[in-house]
Amino acid sequence: MSEQVAFRTFKEGDYEMCCDWWRWWWKEIPVKRKVLPNDERCFVIENNNIPVAAVFLYAAVNPEVGYQTWLVSNPEYKQKDRRKMLELLVANVAKEAKETWGMSMLFTVCVNKHMENIHENQGWFIERSAPCYEAFKYL
Prior knowledge:
By secondary structure, this protein is an alpha+beta fold. It has three helices and seven strands, in the order E-H-E-E-E-H-E-H-E-E. It has helices spanning 14-26, 82-99, 113-121; strands at 5-9, 42-47, 50-59, 65-73, 105-110, 125-129, 132-138. The longest helix is centred in the middle third of the chain and has 18 residues, at 82-99. It starts with a strand and ends with a strand.
């Protein structure tokens, strides 16, 4: 079976899907829809039409700076390519931020060592400070 990877922006029902994932991972919905970016800066990565993960890109007042956050993944997606899909999501958001939104720098914050490694492997600068890390990347 060949892989069909799709990187896309939000469509109807995606926010509710993310809420289900957040409830599974964090036992709560950490962010209300009204404070998330517009759909064109909410991203999903899919494999064979199965949503794997989502992330959100905020634009700072300075349009050259963005903030990538609230990454959440499908807890039922157990395929071996899960990490690869997360890597693709992070890389594609950086590309979108630069090419579509004209951003030249991104920031993120996370408490997950695996995501820290993904960002570091993609050239993000990591500032470690327990219990989380901050990362940034010049695009």
